[in-house]
Amino acid sequence: MSLHERVFPLRMPQDVDAFLERYELAAIFKASTSDKTLEAMQHVQQCLKPRPDVALGIIRIPEDRPASNHLEARTGIKHQSPQFILFHQARPLFDLDSWNINPEHLEPLLLASLPVHIGKPIRNPAVVGLQAYLDLLDGYIAGQLSEERFQWGYLDRLKKEADWRSDPDFELLNSLFPNPDGRAFTPGKVVALEFQAQLAGQAEPLLKRARRLRERVEAYQAARVADL
Predict the structure, then answer these.
(1) In whole angstroms, what is the distance from residue 47 CA to residue 56 CA?
(2) Do 106 and 95 touch, CB atoms closer than 8 A?
(3) 169-180 pLDDT tens trace
(4) What is the rounded distance in angstroms from the CA atom of residue 220 to the CA atom of residue 170?
(5) pTM across the whole model
């Protein structure tokens, strides 16, 4: 499971409160644009990857400063950026700042603070959901998107998400077009293969495939949301 699937953007005070109240195990990372933030985030990703039961909230500085100010007032932990705070039942367990967000400090603190048993994986429906693909399919089926615009829009999105989408997600979304390269595909090559297959009469009309895929995606998403 990708860490990306359990990331929640926290922009306003109410986002912080709702996030901490919803998830028993939660971490909040304050991110700026500095080099140390990028390095710290890489360490956070590495250390949290084995714990899919920890939700991760992201506060971006300076644009999400209202959320950051509220978190400081709520916890009494002075604002820093980057900053990592781990919570259990909305209570802060520890915090690390700046260059201290590294495996040497983070790993033992997580080991000491998190329960041994790994709980149910956290998923952010807004991230793992497939609504963006349904919107593209709907636009194409309704004639609002040309076939060319639909192909490029769909494949560009799938390419950007190929590294972190789950295998079932990717298998479903990838089934629309001929793609022998799996996650390593390039949109241009897939578009060319689609054109060649249609020209040779070897491919079912794309519109027909799109209608069928839309039904499958909607059913798949409904079943997954019910399991969350």
Answers:
(1) 12
(2) no
(3) 899 999 999 999
(4) 12
(5) 0.65
